[in-house]
Structures are given as structure tokens and as C-alpha cells.
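Example for tutorial group B:
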């Protein structure tokens, strides 16, 4: 065993970079013999030795290059040029009219590669669809379902509130105003036009047919009925729908007209609907026609559906979005999207506002109002509408962005 010697020292030869010796502390010192003690050895290190405070270096081998960062597919597609060989589609002709003219209006089926003019399809296609498009043969046209003419089914579908007591026919707000005006002295002033409530059909059987036609259209498009603006998770909250955000201000609905609006909503909750029928046309698709005479300035319906930000719907393929709020900050602007929930307003068609004939067909106007601080969209008759006449309004009442040149 060792006899009180200090620990061994590490000796580094100044002229050598490859040998390190572990020596006893004194040149003449000896170690006590031990059968278990190993013999003194020299340890060879192939690596070079520098200062004790530095890590070993390899100056001859350079540092490895940093890992290469590859661009994402999204970044590549932004800068990539999309090319289609014109020779592949030079001989494409419309399957309906047989013409190859107007290639900018030709749609190619993503399944069979056959071509169709947007105006030759039935119903016509207003704008180029976003994403994949399939022709009627490959997609399978939706069949119009027949809703049963049963009162219980209608009540459940539209969530009609049944009153046990049968009250007398409710008078409209205009009737009460007329009675009040009789005691007011006659004064000459310009009379402002007021909204009129619709007159529901008195025949209960006919009323069931009207409501059944709307149920058929909603079920065909896989929609739920909603007579209110809906605020779904992930979309715009109700707090975003404030008329004070409108750029330039919004027209305020008067107190009397608000009473008319609430009166019409109350009638709908009782199952008393405006005299309208939803019919299917081979050219226009679903459309709405008057089932009885409608007076000028009659409140037809409110435009309802899911409320969302315009920025979230820039690439949306829904063809029935309605402007609700045009804010100073475009990111706060709102639209109504009746693709999943809505009412009869979803099926009222627009005019071709590029032709005089199209403008003559307009019998409704779409107006955005400030109703108790909230933005609402109302459809109002602008002239008397005869029974059997179809309802139309201008889709571009506020913004000239909707392509209506294909409308008939």
C-alpha cells in the first residue's frame, strides 16, 4: 500500500503532443510492493493536447454546414406558374349547345373532362366555382323532395308556437296609428312611407302548401330553417354586429317600422306566413312567387343565416351571401351566409342589372337598417305584386361585385 505520499502529478512534455505520463511525485520515491498494485504504464493519446481550459480542436476538419431549409408546398405554389397546354383543350365544345366559343365561360368537369357553358347549364351557374366542379351527370342532380302536407310535420319543422286560446285576428300597428291620428288636427306635411305587414293567407290548407314548398327547398339543399341571424362558434360573435361600425353610418329603422317588423315576426312564430310559394325552375333553380296580391311597401321577409366575417368567406363558393356590415376596417365587415341555416329569402332570385329587361323585373328592394343598434337586412316590395309573379331584387344594391350578366 502507499506510504503517505502526495497524489501523483500529471506530466506533460512540452515538446510532445501525443504522450502523457503519470509519474510518482518525486524522482527517487518508491512505492511499497503490493501484489495487487498494477505496474506503472504510459498512456498513449492520439489526439493533441492543448491548454487545460480549451476543448480539443480539429483544425483540419471544417464545421458541418447548417441543415438546408426546404420551402413548404404553400410557398412554392405562391410563386409557381400554373400552365395548361392549350392544345389539350382546343377541341372542347359545350355539351349543351355544341359551340366552342366563349372559352372563358366554359366549365370542365373534373371527372369526365366534358365542357359546359355556365349559361347553358340548368340551373345556370353564375360564376366559376371554387375548387372541383362536376357536371350534372357525374354529380347526380338533387331531386326535389316532397314534404308531407301534415300539420304536425309543418309545426315541428318550423317550430311553430301553438296557442291554446284562439285569439281574435290581431290588428297591425298601422291600424292603431290610424285610430290615433283621427284626433290629431290636419297638418300639411310630406308623409314618409311606412312599412306594411304582409297579409297571410286565410285558408289553412293553402297555408300548409306554402310552408311545405319552403320545407321542400330547404331539405333539398340540406338546410335548417332559421328566421333569425345565427352566431355560430368560430364565426363572428354577436358583439361584432353593431351598426355604429358601418362606414358612413346606417339608416335607422323608425319606431313604427320596428313595430311592424316585430308584428311580422310574431305572425311567423304562430304559423302565419307571407303568401309566397317556392317553386323549382329548370333555368333559375328554386325561386319564389307571390301566391296572392302583395301591396307596395309590404315587408316580405328578413334575410337570415349565419353571420361571419367577410375575410373568412373570400374563397367561399356560396352564391347567396348577403352584405350585413361594411365597416371602416374591412377586417370587421360582416356577411350573412345562408348555406346551412336560413329562410325563404335564400330562394328569392336576383335580376340581371346589365340589361333594361332585367331591371324591369325588379319588384323588391334589399335594405340594410339599424334596428336597435344591430344591423339587419329587410326585403321590401317596391310596387304592387300580382299573384303568380316571381320575386326579384338587385343583388348589387350596395356593391357592384356580384356577376349577374348570366341571369335571365
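The residue assignment follows.
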Amino acid at each position: 500500500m502507499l506510504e503517505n505520499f502526495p497524489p501523483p502529478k500529471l506530466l506533460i512534455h512540452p515538446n510532445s503532443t501525443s504522450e502523457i505520463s503519470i509519474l510518482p511525485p518525486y524522482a527517487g520515491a518508491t512505492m511499497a510492493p503490493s501484489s495487487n498494485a498494477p505496474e506503472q504504464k504510459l498512456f498513449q493519446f492520439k489526439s493533441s493536447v492543448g491548454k487545460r481550459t480549451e476543448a480539443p480542436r480539429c483544425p483540419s476538419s471544417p464545421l458541418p454546414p447548417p441543415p438546408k431549409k426546404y420551402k413548404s408546398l404553400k410557398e412554392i405554389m405562391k410563386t409557381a406558374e400554373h400552365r395548361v397546354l392549350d392544345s389539350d383543350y382546343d377541341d372542347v365544345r359545350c355539351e349543351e349547345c355544341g359551340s366552342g366559343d366563349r372559352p372563358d365561360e366554359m366549365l370542365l368537369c373534373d371527372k369526365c373532362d366534358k365542357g359546359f357553358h355556365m349559361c347553358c347549364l340548368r340551373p345556370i351557374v353564375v360564376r366559376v366555382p371554387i375548387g372541383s366542379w362536376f357536371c350534372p351527370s357525374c354529380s347526380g342532380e338533387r331531386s326535389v323532395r316532397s314534404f308531407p302536407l301534415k300539420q304536425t310535420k309543418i309545426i315541428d319543422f318550423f317550430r311553430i308556437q301553438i296557442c291554446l286560446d284562439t285569439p281574435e285576428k290581431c290588428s297591425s300597428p298601422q291600424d292603431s296609428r290610424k285610430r290615433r291620428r283621427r284626433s290629431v288636427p290636419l297638418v300639411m306635411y310630406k308623409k314618409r312611407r311606412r312599412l306594411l305587414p304582409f297579409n297571410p293567407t286565410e285558408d289553412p290548407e293553402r297555408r300548409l302548401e306554402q310552408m311545405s314548398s319552403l320545407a321542400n327547398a330547404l331539405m333539398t339543399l340540406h338546410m335548417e330553417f332559421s328566421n333569425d341571424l345565427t352566431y355560430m362558434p368560430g364565426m363572428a360573435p354577436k358583439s361584432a354586429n353593431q351598426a355604429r361600425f358601418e362606414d358612413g353610418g346606417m339608416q335607422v329603422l323608425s319606431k313604427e317600422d320596428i313595430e311592424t317588423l316585430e308584428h311580422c315576426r310574431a305572425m311567423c312564430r304562430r304559423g302565419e306566413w307571407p303568401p309566397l310559394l317556392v317553386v323549382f325552375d329548370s333555368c333559375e333553380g328554386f325561386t319564389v312567387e307571390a301566391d296572392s296580391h302583395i301591396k307596395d311597401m309590404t315587408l316580405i321577409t328578413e334575410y337570415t343565416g349565419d353571420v361571419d366575417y367577410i375575410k373568412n368567406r373570400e374563397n367561399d363558393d356560396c352564391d347567396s351571401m348577403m352584405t350585413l356590415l361594411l365597416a371602416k376596417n374591412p377586417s370587421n365587415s360582416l356577411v350573412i351566409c345562408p348555406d346551412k341555416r336560413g329562410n325563404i329569402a335564400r330562394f328569392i332570385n336576383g335580376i340581371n342589372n346589365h340589361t333594361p329587361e332585367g331591371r324591369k323585373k325588379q319588384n323588391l328592394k334589399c335594405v340594410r337598417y339599424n334596428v336597435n343598434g344591430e344591423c339587419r337586412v329587410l326585403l321590401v316590395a317596391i310596387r304592387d305584386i300580382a299573384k303568380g309573379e316571381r320575386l326579384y331584387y338587385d343583388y348589387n344594391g350596395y356593391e357592384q361585385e356580384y356577376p349577374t350578366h348570366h341571369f335571365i
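The radius of gyration is 40 Å. Compare this with the pattern of hydrophobic and polar residues in the output above.
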